[in-house]
Every structure is written in C-alpha cells, then in structure tokens.
Amino acid sequence: MNNESNHYPTSVPAQHQQHQPGEQNVMHPEPEIIKSTHQGSNKLKGKVALISGGDSGIGRSIAVLFAREGADIAIIYLEEKEDAEITKQLVEQEGQHCLLLQEDITEPKVSEKCVEQTLKAFSKINILINNAGVQFQQKDLVNISTEQLEKTFKTNIFSMFHLTKAVLPHLKEGDSIINTTSITSYHGHDELIDYASTKGAITTFIRSLSNNLMKQKKGIRVNGVAPGPIWTPLIPSSFDAETVAKFGKDTPMGRMGQPSEVAPAYLFLASDDASYMTGQVIHVNGGEIVNG
C-alpha cells in the first residue's frame, strides 16, 4: 500500500468474517502496519511494553512501532495464532524481543499470569497498553443478549481493570499506561450501544486513575487514544458486508484510517515527549470534532 496519505483507500470491498476479534491475514486489503518513512530514534530504548490485543490491527502497529523505537514487546492475544506469530516476526525484524501470551483476559487471574510471565522474560514492565476489545453490531437494544453484554464489558473494561491492577505495582516513575477508548465514547453509536458504553467507561477510567496516581505522587502517567474508523480485523468481524464497504466514508476526510496512522499517538504518549501529559485522550478520527 502506498504510504502517501492521499493514496490511502477511501473504501474496501464488501467482506465479512464470522468470528471475533477477526483475522488480519484474510482482510482485503490488509491494513498498513507501519509507515515506511518512520525512522526510529530510540525513544523507547530499554523499555518493555505489555500490549493486550497486540496480535493485529492497532495492537500490531503499536508493537512494531515501539520495537522500532527500541522496546521489547509482550503481547496478549486470544486465539489468532497466525496473526500473533506474524507480529512476533515483525518485532524481531526490528531487532527486539517479542513474547507471545495466548490467554483469555476476561478471566481475572489471567492478568496476573501474563504479568508474571512478562517479568520473567524481561524483568520489568514500563508501558501498559490496554487495547483488547470486541464489538457486536445490533440494530435494536432488545437484541443485545445478557451473554453479549457481559462479554463486551468483560473484554473491554473489566479486563482493563484486572490487567492494570496486576501491572501497577511493577511500574515506576516515568512509566505509563495507555488505554484504547473510542470516538463512540463521545458521540455514541446507534448500533454499538454496549460497546460505546464500555468506551465511555474507559474514558472515565483514564481520567480517574490519572488523578488517583498523581495524588499518590507515583509519577506514572495515564492517557488514552480514541480512534475513529480504523481498518482493523474488528471491522469485518463486527459488521455486515454492506456496512464494511461504506466504512469511514462519513468522516470529514472521507475515508477510514489505517493502524499505522494511529500507533504514533501511542508512541508519543509512551515517550518522554509526553512527560507533561496525563489524564488526556488523543483523537485520531479523520477530522471529527468531539470536544473531549
């Protein structure tokens, strides 16, 4: 795919995947992971990042970009082994180490296990990226089953609490937590009611935890990124083919974004460049004003 922004696709072929959170290797076209023009400058040299949902999409882009900037990576993924192995290879091509953790983070004790394994491999954790998520298109509230509601909340926000609790005792001054929220946190979504509700909770979690840690004088920053319509495996595995074919066209830029266009926001927040930022959310959404 051409790296010039004016050559990014404005639409994709109609497609649908039956199973969440989806597989990147069968998407058409595959998302762009990192801009070829990005030259690493050791902004994260010697750091270790733990990334949930790090096998594909935005998570993969974060992993590869962080590796290019000198970080070792541990990623948690559910079951997309081929995607995870590709991410590992890409991280290793950048000269860094990558630990794969195949786990279901909706189980509370899994977070402690993942942290223990990361510490065993790398001896430290400096950056936590809470990025795992699911969403299920429903045109009517009454169609949201109790099972779906619980899965969405357990995956998107409960797991974030569990993983953050497990990592927090091992973070030190200057380390950071970055959570993936969403544009839907700010204006809602009529067919993703439960998903948007979890993203609203995540935005509030960012602000609340940031204040809490600042009062404790721990020097740990907590921020977030609120992507708009980004071309990731979650899209064809969430929406019907007709919706996918129109994905992102209603943004001011008239197109969907690529993971490569979102990951630099996480890099900024993880690096010392953002040393005076905490409790904030960066909006990467194709130009929509959300005043949040």
From TrEMBL:
<dbReference type="InterPro" id="IPR002347">
    <property type="entry name" value="SDR_fam"/>
</dbReference>
<feature type="compositionally biased region" description="Polar residues">
    <location>
        <begin position="1"/>
        <end position="23"/>
    </location>
</feature>
<dbReference type="InterPro" id="IPR020904">
    <property type="entry name" value="Sc_DH/Rdtase_CS"/>
</dbReference>
<dbReference type="Pfam" id="PF13561">
    <property type="entry name" value="adh_short_C2"/>
</dbReference>
<dbReference type="InterPro" id="IPR036291">
    <property type="entry name" value="NAD(P)-bd_dom_sf"/>
</dbReference>
<feature type="region of interest" description="Disordered">
    <location>
        <begin position="1"/>
        <end position="25"/>
    </location>
</feature>
<comment type="similarity">
    <text>Belongs to the short-chain dehydrogenases/reductases (SDR) family.</text>
</comment>
<keyword id="KW-0560">Oxidoreductase</keyword>
<protein>
    <recommendedName>
        <fullName>NAD(P)-dependent oxidoreductase</fullName>
    </recommendedName>
</protein>
